[in-house]
Write a structure and sequence with these properties.
Strand order of the largest sheet of chain C: 1-2
Number of helices of chain C: 20
Distance between the termini of chain C: 54 Å
Largest interface: B-C, 91 and 77 residues
Number of strands of chain C: 2
Oligomer: heterotrimer
Strand content of chain B: 5-15%
Chains: A alpha+beta, B alpha+beta, C mainly alpha
Order of helices and strands of chain C: HHHHHHHHHHHHHEEHHHHHHH
Largest sheet of chain C: 2 strands, antiparallel
Structural class of chain B: alpha+beta
Number of strands of chain B: 11
Strand content of chain C: under 5%
Chain lengths: 295, 381, 478
C-alpha cells in the first residue's frame, strides 16, 4: 500500500507516525549509475541502457573523469607552454600543414599598412619561397607593443603564426599576437655598385646610389606610359622604368627632379630583367625612405 | 512567454540603440566606433534572468508546510487528496499562508506516473492516470484499477481563484485590462492541475477577510524576481564592472542589462499571472493584462520571428547598411519590413488559423491549463 | 547562355565519382565512431600525393557525395548502435527510445526521410541561397562574435534542473535538482579552457595540423559513446519488421520549420553543431501547444475525467526525428554548399564546416559550380536514401544478433590507429584521452553532450571579437 511522503509541522507529525515513508535509500539505489536518470524497479536504464546493479565503480569512474579532465588540461597547458613552434622554410610548406603554428624568417619584400581597417599585410621571402603575413585588425595592438619599431621593407623578420593554406590565395599566415613578431635586422639590404649587378642578382634587393644619366617617356603597346630613368654611378649604368602609377606616387619634387640629368638619387630596388639585361624595380616609390633625391 | 522569447526580445530591444550595435561590430570592419563588444549578450542574459532566478534558484528555497511525494509503486489518490484538504483546513484555521508542494512520480528514466488534481469550491479530487513518457505520451493499459484510480476529500473552507487583496497597481491593471478586453469572466473556476514530468508544482493557500481561501498557483513564481527595481539593482554591478574595467561606453552596459530585464517583465505583464513589478515597494503579485497565454505557440513564435527580423534590420542599418539605411542599400526600410516582417507573419497567422480550426474540430473537452512560462516545452536535450 | 548550362551539367566521369563517393561514404560510415571528416582528411592527403586518382573537376562532387552519403547512412550506427557524433543531440535520444521498443526501422527511416526532405529543401531554396542569403551573411558577418556569445549564453541558461528538488534543506534540494546543470557548466568550462589553450598554441606536429581537431572530437564524442555502450551492456531487442513507417506526410510540414531553422544555424554559425542547432530550433519553433491535452468525459471506471492526449503530443517524437535528419544534412552538406554561393556580395562563398576547411588547400569554388553541387546532392542523396532503406532492413534483421562489444572494441582500435597515423601520433592520442575524460562527464551526470563544443565556440567567439591575444597572454602561451 502506498502513501504520500509528507512533511509539515503539525500535519506531518501526525501522519508520519503511521505512514511508512518510501525510503530515500531505495530511490538512490534505483538511479541509473551512468546517466543519473531515475530507473525505478527496472534492471536496465531506459534512457541509456545501463545495467542498474553495476554501480560499484561509477563513483570512482566519475572521479577519474573529472580528475582526468583537470589533469589533462594541466598537461595540455604544460605541453603548450613548453612547445617551441618549429622553424620551417617557406618553400617546404605543404597542404597538411594548414592551421599549423610555425615560425618563419625572411626579408620583408612588401608591406602595406592600412590605418582604415587597422591592419597590415606583408610578404616575407626566405630564399626558398615567399609567404603573405596578415595582421588583420591588429595594427594598433602591434603598435602598442612595438612602438616605432614596426617592420619596414627589407627588414629581416621572424614571425610565429598560424598557417593558412588555400588554393585560391596560396600560403599565408595569420599574425595576431604582437609578441610573436621579432625584427632580426633593420634594413638588411646592402649597397651595390651598378657595375656589379648581373642577371644572377635577379630577385635580390639592394640600395643603389647613382645620378640620373637620362630620362625619357614612351608608351607601351597597351597604352601605358613608362617613365624610363637611366642611372649611372661611375661603375656602370642601368635602366629603372617607372610605371605611371609609380611615378605619380612619387613626391612632386622628386618626380620633377628625376627628369633632370645629374640628379643624385638613393633607391632601394629589386633586381629584375628585361631582354636579358638587368634593370631596377623600385621597392616603394611612394615612400621617401626608399626613393629619395640627395641634395 | 517562453525563455527563448524573452531572450531574443531583449536582444532585439538592445539593437535599437545605434551605439550598442556600433560598438558590437567587429573592429575589422570600417564602422565608426566598432569595438567587437559582447554587450548585446547582456540583453539576452538579463532577458532570461527573471525566470532563471525563479526556476533555477527560487523554487528550491521555498519551505512548503506540506510536501506530497507519492510512493512510486502504488500512489494512493485518497491520501494525496487528504493532504490537500488538510492544507486548506490548516490555512483556514491559522489564517496564515500555507504552501503545499506536489512532486512528480518518476518510475524510470523515461516513465512517470501521471496524476491530476481537480478543485471544487469545498472539495478536491485526485485521479491517478497512466504511466507517461517524458514527452507526456501515455502508455496504454497502465492505468491503476478502478478502486485505486481516484478519490475525493472535502475541506472546511471555500476556495477561490482570485484574491480580494487589491492594491492600487492591481486595480489599475484590472482597469486597463477591462478597457482593452471588456469585463472579466465571472465565476472563474480553479483549473485542474496535472502533475507528471520533471518539476514539482506548488500552491499557496491563504484565508482572506471574506472567510474564503485564496488559491495561489506557484506562489513563488513571478514575485521578487519579476521586479523592475530588482532589474535596476542587478544592473548596478554591470555598470560598476564596466566602469572599473575601463570599458569605453561603460554606461551603456548596465543600461542594456536593465533593458533586457525590463523587456521580460513588460512581456510578462501581457499574460495572465503578471508579476511583483515594484517589489520590494509593493510585494503583492500584480495580475497581467491577459492579452496572451504565455504558452501560446503563436505568440511566442511570432515574437521570436519579429525579433530575429528586427535584429537583422537594426544591425544592418547601424553598421553594414547593405539591406537598408543608406541610399545605395538594396531596398527601403519600409519594403524590407513589409516583405520580411509583415507578409511572413500574415501568412503564418493564416496558416495557423487553418491548422487550429482543424485541431479544434477534434476538440471536445476542457483544455489543460498552461504550464508555467519560461520553462519551455519538454524538449529532449 | 546555353554553354553555361552545358558546363553546369556534370559529365559521365563526374557522375561516376559521385556514385563512387556515395558508396565509399556509405561503407565507411557503417563503422561506428568513424567520422566522415576523418575519412575526408585521409582522402585529401591521398589525393594530394596522387592527384590522378580523381580529376580536379570531380574533386568537389566526390567529396560532396561522400558527405551526403554520410549524412544519410550514419543514421544506422547512430540509431541501432547508439554511436553518437557531435550532431547526435538532434536524434539520438528519440532513436534510442524507439529501438528499445523494437521500432528501430521507424527511427532510421523517419530520420532518413527527414534527411531526404533536407536534400529537397537545399535544392528548392536555391533562390533564397542566391538572392537573400548573401545579404544576411554579409550583414551578420561583423557580428558573429556576439551571435556566438548569445548561442553560448542561451545554451547554458536553457539547461534546466532535471531533479524535482527533493531534500530536507534548500541546499540539498538545490544540489539534487542542479546535478545535471552543475555537470553541464563543468563540462562547458573544461572544454572551453581546453579549447583556449589548444587554439592559442597548438601542440600537434606540423605535418598533421590540418587534422588537429580530429583527436579532440574523437575524445569528446566517439570514445565516450563506445565506453558507455561497452559498460552499459547495451543490447538492442529484436526489432519489428514492417512495410509501413509510423508517420503521416503532414509531419514533414511540421518538421520542415525546425529542420530549416536548426539546419541554417548549424550550417552558418561556426562551431554550432546539428545538436545545438536542433536545441535552439526546438525552442524557437515549438508548436506542440497548439493543441493541449483536454479533460473529457470519463471513459473508464474510476475516472473523474479522461485526460485526452492530442495527436500533437505523439507527433513530437516523429518531428524530432524528421527535423533532426534535416538539420543533419544542412549541417554537414549545407555548410559545404555555401562555399559555392559566389555572388557579388559573397565573392568567396560563405562556406563553413569541416569539409570546407579540409579542402581549402586543394580546392577553390568557381562560378557555375553551385548547380553542379545541387545535382550532386540530389543524385547522391537519392542513392544514399536507397542504401539507407536496404541497410535498415538488414540491421532490423540482424541487430539483436550482433556482437556489439566486438564491433565497438574494433572501432576503438581503428579510431586510435587513425589518430596515430594522421592525427598527430602519440600527441594526438594523448589529446584524445584528455578530451575523453571531459566527454565522459555528460555520460556520467546526464547533462548535454554538446557542452563539449565549447572547445570551439568559446575560442572562436573570443578570436572573432579580437580577444585571442589577451587570452593567449593570460594563459602565458605567447
Amino acid at each position: 500500500m502506498g502513501f504520500p511522503r509528507l512533511e509539515g509541522y503539525q500535519a506531518a507529525s501526525e501522519v508520519m507516525a503511521e505512514i511508512p515513508t518510501p525510503s530515500t535509500p531505495a530511490r538512490k539505489a534505483s538511479v541509473c549509475p551512468v546517466c543519473e536518470y531515475y530507473a525505478g524497479v527496472t534492471g536496465t536504464c531506459v534512457r541509456c541502457g545501463a545495467r542498474i546493479n553495476k554501480s560499484i565503480s561509477v563513483r570512482a569512474a566519475r572521479k577519474i573523469a573529472i580528475a582526468g579532465s583537470v589533469a589533462g588540461i594541466a598537461l595540455l597547458w604544460i605541453a603548450a607552454y613548453l612547445k617551441v613552434p618549429p622553424h620551417i622554410n617557406i618553400g617546404d610548406i605543404s597542404e597538411p600543414m594548414n592551421n599549423a603554428l610555425v615560425r618563419v624568417e625572411g626579408l620583408v619584400t612588401r608591406i602595406d599598412y592600412s590605418e582604415e581597417d587597422n591592419s597590415f599585410r606583408m610578404t616575407l621571402n626566405d630564399g626558398t619561397g615567399q609567404i603573405r603575413i596578415n595582421a588583420i585588425n591588429r595594427l594598433r595592438a602591434f603598435r602598442r607593443v612595438h612602438g616605432e619599431k614596426m617592420p619596414r621593407l627589407r627588414d629581416r623578420l621572424a614571425v610565429t603564426g598560424v598557417l593558412s593554406i588555400s588554393q585560391a590565395w596560396g600560403n599565408s599566415m595569420f599574425l595576431s599576437i604582437p609578441d610573436r613578431m621579432e625584427i632580426l635586422a633593420r634594413d638588411a639590404v646592402e649597397d651595390k655598385d651598378i657595375g656589379e649587378i648581373t642577371l644572377a642578382d635577379e630577385g635580390s634587393t639592394y640600395w643603389i646610389t647613382a645620378r640620373v644619366q637620362s630620362y625619357r617617356e614612351f608608351t607601351t603597346r597597351s597604352g601605358g606610359l613608362i617613365h624610363m630613368v637611366r642611372l649611372s654611378d661611375g661603375t656602370g649604368s642601368i635602366d629603372m622604368p617607372l610605371f605611371e602609377t609609380q611615378y605619380e606616387s612619387l613626391p612632386e619634387d622628386t618626380g620633377n627632379r628625376i627628369r633632370l640629368r645629374g640628379t643624385e638619387v638613393r633607391v632601394m630596388a629589386n633586381i629584375g630583367s628585361y631582354r636579358d639585361e638587368p634593370q631596377l624595380e623600385p621597392a616603394d616609390p611612394s615612400d621617401p625612405y626608399y626613393f629619395r633625391v640627395l641634395d | 512567454m517562453k525563455g527563448m522569447t524573452h531572450f531574443v526580445s531583449g536582444v532585439a530591444a538592445a539593437t535599437f540603440i545605434p551605439q550598442v550595435v556600433r560598438i558590437s561590430t567587429s573592429a575589422r570592419f570600417a564602422v565608426e566606433g566598432a569595438a567587437g563588444s559582447f554587450i548585446i549578450v547582456l540583453a539576452g542574459i538579463f532577458g532570461m534572468l527573471p525566470d532563471t532566478l525563479d526556476f533555477k534558484f527560487n523554487q528550491f528555497f521555498q519551505k512548503p508546510l506540506f510536501k506530497v511525494d507519492p510512493e512510486p509503486s502504488s500512489p494512493d489518490p485518497a491520501e494525496i487528496a487528504a493532504q490537500f484538504a488538510r492544507a486548506v483546513n490548516e490555512a483556514g484555521r491559522t489564517g496564515k499562508e500555507v504552501r503545499i508542494q506536489f512532486f512528480p512520480i518518476q518510475l524510470s528514466g523515461n516513465e512517470w506516473r501521471q496524476y491530476c488534481i481537480f478543485f471544487d469550491k469545498k472539495s478536491v479530487s485526485v485521479q491517478v492516470n497512466e504511466i507517461v513518457s517524458t514527452s507526456q505520451i501515455p502508455v496504454p493499459g497502465t492505468a491503476p484499477p478502478a478502486d485505486k484510480r481516484s478519490a475525493t476529500a472535502e475541506f472546511d473552507y471555500e476556495l477561490k481563484p482570485r484574491s480580494e487583496k487589491v492594491d492600487w497597481l492591481n486595480s489599475s491593471v484590472r482597469l486597463l485590462r477591462r478597457l482593452i478586453k471588456g469585463p472579466d469572466k465571472p465565476g472563474k473556476k480553479i483549473p485542474p492541475t496535472t502533475v507528471d514530468i520533471l518539476s514539482s508544482t506548488m500552491f499557496g493557500l491563504e484565508k482572506e477577510p471574506d472567510g474564503r481561501v485564496y488559491f495561489n498557483w506557484l506562489p513563488w513564481h513571478r514575485t521578487w524576481t519579476h521586479s523592475y527595481l530588482l532589474g535596476l539593482i542587478l544592473s548596478v554591478p554591470v555598470f560598476l564592472g564596466a566602469y572599473l574595467l575601463g570599458v569605453e561606453n561603460w554606461s551603456l552596459y548596465g543600461g542594456v542589462a536593465f533593458l533586457g530585464f525590463a523587456v521580460h517583465l513588460t512581456e510578462d505583464m501581457t499574460g495572465h499571472i503578471g508579476g511583483s513589478i515594484l517589489w520590494p515597494l509593493m510585494r503583492q503579485r500584480t495580475e497581467g493584462l491577459e492579452l496572451f497565454k504565455a504558452s501560446d505557440p503563436r505568440t511566442n513564435f511570432s515574437v521570436i520571428y519579429a525579433a530575429f527580423i528586427l535584429i537583422i534590420f537594426n544591425i544592418d542599418r547601424f553598421s553594414t547598411q547593405l539591406i537598408t539605411g543608406a541610399p545605395e542599400s538594396a531596398i527601403s526600410w519600409q519594403l524590407f519590413l513589409l516583405l520580411f516582417l509583415a507578409l511572413p507573419l500574415l501568412i503564418y497567422f493564416s496558416v495557423m488559423k487553418k491548422i487550429i480550426a482543424a485541431v479544434r474540430k477534434e476538440s471536445e473537452g476542457e483544455p489543460e491549463p498552461e504550464e508555467p512560462d519560461g520553462t519551455g516545452d519538454p524538449l529532449i536535450d | 547562355m546555353l554553354s553555361s548550362y552545358a558546363a553546369a551539367v556534370p559529365d559521365a566521369v563526374t557522375i561516376l565519382y559521385v556514385i563512387l563517393g556515395t558508396f565509399s561514404g556509405a561503407l565507411l560510415c557503417l563503422i561506428p565512431a568513424l567520422h566522415i571528416y576523418n575519412v575526408a582528411g585521409i582522402a585529401m592527403l591521398l589525393w594530394a600525393t596522387a592527384r590522378h586518382l580523381i580529376p580536379y573537376y570531380a574533386l568537389a562532387p566526390f567529396f560532396m557525395s561522400l558527405v551526403v552519403s554520410y549524412s544519410f547512412l550514419n543514421t544506422i550506427p547512430m540509431t541501432f548502435l547508439g554511436a553518437a557524433d557531435e550532431s547526435a543531440g538532434a536524434t539520438l535520444l528519440p532513436s534510442l527510445s524507439l529501438v528499445t521498443k523494437g521500432r528501430g526501422q521507424d527511427a532510421a527511416l523517419l530520420t532518413g526521410l527527414g534527411t531526404m526532405a533536407g536534400v529537397l529543401v537545399l535544392i528548392l531554396l536555391y533562390p533564397f541561397f542566391w538572392y537573400i542569403w548573401p545579404y544576411i551573411a554579409r550583414a551578420t558577418g561583423p557580428h558573429l562574435h556576439w551571435i556566438l556569445g548569445l548561442v553560448i549564453a542561451h545554451y547554458i541558461m536553457s539547461e534546466w534542473p532535471k531533479g524535482a528538488g527533493r531534500g530536507e534543506t534548500p541546499f540539498k534540494r538545490f544540489r539534487e535538482a542542479w546535478r545535471n546543470c552543475f555537470a553541464g557548466i563543468l563540462t562547458f568550462t573544461l572544454a572551453a579552457v581546453f579549447g583556449l589553450i589548444y587554439t592559442a598554441k597548438p601542440i600537434m606536429p606540423v605535418e598533421s595540423s590540418f587534422q588537429n581537431i580530429m583527436p579532440v572530437f574523437i575524445g569528446f564524442f566517439a570514445i565516450p559513446s563506445i565506453i558507455q555502450t561497452l559498460i552499459s551492456d547495451y543490447r538492442p531487442p529484436r526489432q519489428h519488421i514492417s512495410r509501413k513507417i509510423n508517420a503521416g506526410w503532414e509531419d514533414f510540414g511540421f518538421g520542415a520549420v525546425p529542420g530549416f531553422v536548426g539546419g541554417m544555424l548549424a550550417a552558418y554559425l561556426p562551431a554550432v553543431t546539428a545538436g545545438i542547432g536542433a536545441m535552439i530550433a526546438g525552442h524557437v519553433t515549438n508548436h506542440r501547444n497548439i493543441s493541449r491535452a483536454e479533460f473529457r468525459d470519463p471513459q473508464s471506471p474510476g475516472e473523474i475525467k479522461h485526460l485526452h492526449t492530442p495527436e500533437m503530443y505523439y507527433r513530437q517524437e516523429r518531428l524530432f526525428l524528421i527535423s533532426g535528419g534535416m538539420i543533419k544534412i544542412m549541417y554537414y552538406v549545407g555548410a559545404f554548399l555555401m562555399l559555392f554561393i559566389l555572388t557579388d556580395l559573397t565573392p568567396y562563398g560563405t562556406g563553413r564546416g569541416g569539409l570546407t576547411f579540409i579542402l581549402r588547400p586543394v580546392f577553390t569554388a568557381e562560378p557555375g559550380d553551385f548547380p553542379v553541387m545541387l545535382g550532386t546532392i540530389l543524385l547522391s542523396g537519392s542513392l544514399a536514401f536507397l542504401l539507407l532503406i536496404v541497410s535498415t532492413k538488414l540491421m532490423v534483421c540482424i541487430v539483436h544478433r550482433l556482437n556489439l562489444k566486438l564491433i565497438y572494441i574494433s572501432s576503438l582500435i581503428l579510431v586510435f590507429l587513425i589518430i596515430y597515423a594522421v592525427g598527430g601520433g602519440w600527441a594526438g592520442i594523448t589529446v584524445s584521452l584528455a578530451t575523453t575524460c571531459i566527454g565522459m562527464i555528460p555520460v556520467f551526470y546526464g547533462c548535454r553532450r554538446s557542452h563539449c563544443m565549447a572547445v570551439l565556440l568559446v575560442p572562436i567567439a573570443l578570436n572573432m571579437a579580437g580577444y585571442g591575444d589577451a587570452v593567449a597572454r593570460f594563459l602565458r602561451l605567447i
